[in-house]
Design goal:
Elements lengths: L26 H9 L2 H14 L4 H25 L3 H7 L2 H33 L6 H18 L2 H25 L4 H6 L10 H9 L6 H11 L8 H31 L10 H14 L1 H38 L14 H8 L2 H11 L12 H25 L13 H24 L3
Helix pairs in contact: 1-7, 1-10, 1-11, 1-13, 2-11, 3-9, 3-10, 3-11, 3-16, 3-17, 4-5, 5-6, 5-13, 5-15, 5-16, 6-13, 6-15, 7-11, 7-13, 9-17, 10-13, 10-14, 12-13, 13-15, 16-17
C-alpha cells in the first residue's frame, strides 16, 4: 500500500506528514498486549484488595508515564532513521556490555516464566488433562512456530485478537462485580494510605513497563513507518496502547476492590494468583464466568509470550547486526529503518537463534528450581532495565544525534526525568527484595 511505503515513487524518503488515523493503529496494540502480563494483573488485584479504590490515581499517572516513555522510543526511530540499539551504541561500549548480558540472562529465565504462565490457565480449564510442564512446553513450541513462520502483519492481527479477548473479559468481570463509581472518582485524588508506598510505585511503574517498551520502535518500523512523516500516526497509536493498558489496570483494581477487599480474600503472588481469582469468581458468579476469565488469563499470558518472542528477537537481531558492523562513528544508517529492514531481521540467523534461546534452554527450568545465582542476576539486570531505558532516551533525545525539530521539549524532559527517577527508586527496591 502506498500509505505505508517508506519512500515516494522517486525512491526518496516520503516526507508528507500522514494524518493520524485509526486505520493505521497496530504497533500500539502489540505493545499493550505484550506489556500486560499475568503477574502485572495480580499485582494490581492485590493493590485493590488491600487499599480499595484509593490508588486509582497511581494507575492513571502510570499510563501518562508509559505514554511519554514509549513515545520517546518511537520518536527516536522515526526522527533519526536509526534503531534504539544504534542509539545506545553511540553512547559508548558500556551499553553494549549491559545489553549483551541482560538479553541472554533475562531471556533464559523469562522463557520459562512465560511458558508456565501460559500453561496455568489451560491446566485450570482442563484439570484432568496433562500437567503444567506438558502445556508449558506446548505453548512454547506453538509460540516458536508462530513467530518463526509469520511476518509482522500476521503477528499484529493475532495480537489484536488476543488483546480483544483480554479487553472484553477484563471489562466484563469488572462490570459483574458492580464498581462503586463514587469511590472510583474519589480514588483519583492522590492519597497515600499507610503501607501503600511500594504498591503505589508498582502501579505507576509496573504494568506494561518492560523491555517491550523498547521494542515498540522496532514494531513501528516493522509496520512500515520509517520516517518523521509518521510521527502523528505513531503518537495516536501510542496513546491507544497505554489508554488500553490503563483500562486493564483500572478494571483489575475494581475487581480487587469490590471482590477481594471487603471479603479479605488473599491471592497467591505471581501468576497463580489469577487461578485463585478464577476460583473466587466461580463461587460468586458460577462456572461460566470463571471459565471465561481463564480464557482471558490465557490470552493475557500467551500474547506476552509471542510478543516477547517476536519483539525481543528483533532487538537481538539488531544488536548482532550493529555489533558486527564497523563502528564508523556510529554514523546514521544510509537507509531509513522500515518494513524491509524488519523483514530482513525476521529471516536472519540471530533472530531465529534468539527465538530458539527463548524456547528450548528455559524448558530445563521447568524441572529444576531456578539456580540462586541466576535468580539474583535476572533480578538485578531486570530492575536496571527501565531506568536504563528512560535515562538513555533522555540523553539521546536532547543531543545532536536527534534532529533539532524532534528533540525533547520541556514536557518530554520532565516526564522522562520523572519516569527515570521513579524507575531508579523501583530498581533499588527490587534489588533489596532479592533473596541475597
Amino acid at each position: 500500500m502506498a500509505e505505508t511505503s517508506a519512500t515516494t515513487g522517486t525512491g526518496e524518503p516520503a516526507s508528507r506528514p500522514r494524518r493520524s488515523s485509526w486505520k493505521y493503529i497496530g504497533p500500539g496494540i502489540v505493545v499493550a498486549a505484550t506489556g500486560v502480563g499475568a503477574g502485572d494483573l495480580v499485582a494490581t488485584l492485590i493493590a485493590g484488595s488491600k487499599f480499595g479504590y484509593t490508588l486509582m490515581w497511581a494507575a492513571v499517572i502510570g499510563c501518562v508515564v508509559k505514554i511519554s516513555l514509549a513515545e520517546a522510543a518511537g520518536r527516536w526511530h522515526l526522527a533519526t532513521g536509526r534503531t534504539l540499539f544504534d542509539g545506545w551504541r553511540s553512547l559508548g561500549p558500556w551499553t553494549t556490555v549491559y545489553f549483551a548480558i541482560y538479553v541472554v540472562v533475562w531471556g533464559f529465565i523469562y522463557g520459562a516464566t512465560a511458558m508456565s504462565s501460559s500453561a496455568l490457565p489451560i491446566v485450570a480449564l482442563f484439570p484432568d488433562g496433562p500437567g503444567l510442564k506438558f502445556w508449558a512446553i506446548v505453548t512454547g513450541l506453538i509460540g516458536l512456530a508462530f513467530v518463526w513462520f509469520n511476518r509482522y502483519a500476521v503477528f499484529e492481527k493475532v495480537m489484536t485478537v488476543l488483546i480483544g479477548i483480554m479487553f472484553v473479559v477484563v471489562v466484563y468481570v469488572a462490570a459483574r462485580v458492580v464498581p462503586d463509581v463514587g469511590a472510583s472518582f474519589a480514588g483519583l485524588l492522590p492519597v497515600l494510605p499507610d503501607g501503600s508506598l511500594l504498591y503505589t510505585l508498582g502501579l505507576i511503574g509496573g504494568v506494561g513497563g518492560t523491555i517491550t517498551m523498547a521494542a515498540y520502535g522496532y514494531w513501528v518500523n516493522a509496520k512500515g513507518w520509517s520516517n518523521a512523516s509518521w510521527m502523528k500516526v505513531m503518537r495516536l497509536d501510542n496513546r491507544v496502547a497505554y489508554i488500553t493498558t490503563g483500562v486493564f489496570v483500572v478494571a483489575m483494581l475494581i475487581v480487587g476492590a469490590e471482590l477481594l477487599h471487603a471479603s479479605q480474600v488473599a491471592l497467591t503472588s505471581g501468576d497463580r494468583g489469577l487461578v485463585d481469582l478464577g476460583e473466587v469468581l466461580e463461587d460468586r458468579f458460577g462456572t461460566g464466568t470463571a471459565k471465561l476469565f481463564l480464557v482471558g488469563f490465557f490470552a493475557t499470558s500467551f500474547s506476552s509470550l509471542i510478543g516477547v518472542w517476536h519483539g525481543v528477537s528483533l532487538m537481538f537481531a539488531d544488536f548482532v547486526e550493529r555489533f558486527r558492523a564497523p563502528a564508523a562513528g556510529a554514523a546514521k544508517t544510509e537507509e531509513h529503518e522500515g518494513a524491509q529492514s524488519a523483514d530482513r531481521r525476521q529471516r536472519s540467523l540471530p533472530f531465529r537463534a534468539y527465538l530458539l534461546w527463548l524456547t528450548f534452554p528455559p524448558m530445563t527450568l521447568l524441572w529444576l528450581d531456578e539456580p540462586f545465582g541466576l535468580v539474583i542476576a535476572y533480578g538485578v539486570l531486570g530492575a536496571f532495565f527501565m531506568p536504563f531505558l528512560a535515562l538513555t532516551l533522555l540523553w539521546l533525545l536532547n543531543s545532536s544525534r536527534t534532529p533539532a525539530q524532534w528533540r525533547n521539549g520541556a514536557v518530554s524532559n520532565l516526564m522522562l526525568a520523572l519516569s527515570g527517577l521513579l524507575f531508579v527508586v523501583l530498581c533499588v527496591q527490587q534489588v533489596r527484595e532479592l533473596p541475597w
